[in-house]
Design a protein that fits this description.
Elements (H helix, E strand, L loop, with lengths): L1 H22 L3 H21 L4 H11 L3 H18 L4 H6 L1 H26 L9 H11 L4 H8 L6 H31 L5 H30 L5 H22 L3 H19 L3 H28 L8 H29 L9 H7 L5 H8 L5 H34 L3
Helix pairs in contact: 1-2, 1-13, 2-3, 2-13, 2-17, 4-11, 4-12, 4-13, 4-16, 6-7, 6-9, 6-14, 7-9, 7-17, 8-9, 8-17, 9-10, 9-12, 10-11, 10-12, 11-12, 11-13, 14-15, 14-17, 15-17, 16-17
């Protein structure tokens, strides 16, 4: 295990250095892009008979449970770190917009993507049962807060737009995971659950996760308010995340939502009322560095994962169809409602264009696809998911700043 960790960290550091020194892209985009190019180069070498390095990469990836590492380890830390610096008062001002996009938008997007692919994929030469199409819809609909917040930092968007995009991306993961569990249970039971059962599951996962996050956040706040020592307070925040996420899994409530809520409470109430200036600076520095390191490792792994994705000519058209359908569903479930609401949404001109194009997908979607039971359906879902994530990070991620400047900054 130590060898695997050392290899991942060393490769990540090398790619991050190359990006910073020679490429200059945003860290997440640059590291993933270079890792992707490296993997493609090794695939080409393998095709011409030079397979040593390709075999080593395959061996490394097979020794890593990407889904478990992200879903049971990295995700809790990354979500807490992302929520830690979100202004809770600003988030409350746009609470109904965030709720509309994160809950209603994610549900609508899942249904639209699943239904459209069920009818369109056979035209490309491949097909998926409806339940599996819904699985894909559920895992690809939530935007990735890790990707979104990393790109937003350089976009200089208006504060109102930034808080809505960040809030949606932080909260829709919990909704998407609940929908994913629901779709997988339909496959396991061979019958779709009733509307009552589905609503009960969503309420338990999402509502329970939010309630547990409130308890966890305020407990951490109470502990931190009784001491003034940054070493112990950093340790409390770390225990809050790792211990809280593990307990949320045992309680069968949404760990991602719990981490977001706990992060908001610690990042707002505890930072303002329970931390000295020295503690605040050290807590912020610790979580900033941890967030940056984990982000780099995550996107390095995403770039390498192309070698385990099925590749065939028939999948090219299917992948292009999935990308088009996902973008169309994003517009219909998020962009169109904001376009119709106009100024009543309280957002600047051009918000619907940015929210439509800025809905980036990332490692969470890949991890969920890799967690599916092995079989032809998983191979196809993984290929479609990976194609969408690569397009999202390299295509949307590299152009979303230009979209903000073109449609928002120029008119506000």
């Amino acid at each position: 295990m130590l060898d695997v960790f050392a290899a991942c960290l060393t490769l990540t550091a090398l790619l991050a250095y190359l990006n910073h020194r020679f490429v200059g892209l945003p860290p997440t985009v640059g590291v993933m892009g270079i890792a992707l190019l490296l993997s493609i180069a090794l695939l080409i070498l393998d095709a011409v008979g030079i397979s040593t390095w390709h075999d080593y990469e395959l061996s490394l990836l097979r020794s890593i449970d990407f889904s478990a590492i992200l879903m049971q380890g990295m995700l809790s830390l990354l979500l807490f770190a992302g929520a830690l610096h979100v202004d809770l008062r600003a988030l409350r001002r746009y609470g109904w917009q965030v709720g509309l996009l994160a809950v209603v938008g994610t549900i609508c997007s899942t249904v639209l993507i699943g239904g459209a692919l069920y009818y369109l994929l056979p035209m490309t030469g491949v097909s998926l049962p409806m339940a599996w199409c819904m699985v894909f819809g559920a895992l690809i609909s939530p935007t990735d807060p890790i990707s979104v917040m990393g790109i937003l930092s350089s976009a200089k968007a208006p504060a109102s737009l930034e808080i809505v995009i960040a809030g949606e991306s932080l909260f829709n993961d919990g909704v998407g995971l609940a929908l994913f569990v629901l779709a997988m249970s339909a496959i396991a039971d061979a019958t779709p659950p009733s509307a009552t059962a589905a609503a009960r599951l969503l309420l338990r996962e999402a509502g329970g996760g939010i309630a547990f996050g409130l308890v966890l956040g305020y407990l951490s706040f109470a502990l931190m308010s009784t001491i003034d020592s940054y070493q112990e307070e950093v340790l409390i925040t770390l225990a809050t995340v790792l211990g809280g996420y593990a307990l949320a899994n045992h309680l069968h409530v949404s760990g991602p939502l719990a981490m977001v809520v706990a992060g908001l409470i610690v990042g707002n109430h505890a930072r303002a009322e329970a931390m000295s200036d020295t503690t605040r600076a050290n807590v912020d520095m610790f979580w900033h560095l941890l967030d940056a390191i984990l982000n780099a490792v995550l996107f390095m792994l995403v770039g390498l994962e192309i070698v385990v994705v099925e590749r065939s000519p028939s999948l090219v058209l299917a992948s292009a169809t999935a990308v088009a359908v996902t973008l169309a569903a994003r517009f219909l479930s998020v962009g169109l409602p904001l376009l119709v609401l106009g100024r009543r949404a309280g957002l600047p001109t051009g918000a619907w264009q940015v929210l439509t194009w800025g809905g980036l997908r990332g490692g969470i979607s890949v991890a969920l696809a890799l967690s599916l039971p092995a079989g032809p359906e998983q191979d196809l879902v993984l290929a479609l998911t990976y194609s969408m994530v690569v397009f999202s990070i390299l295509g949307q991620g590299l152009t979303v700043v230009a979209v903000v400047r073109r449609f928002v900054l120029r008119h506000n």
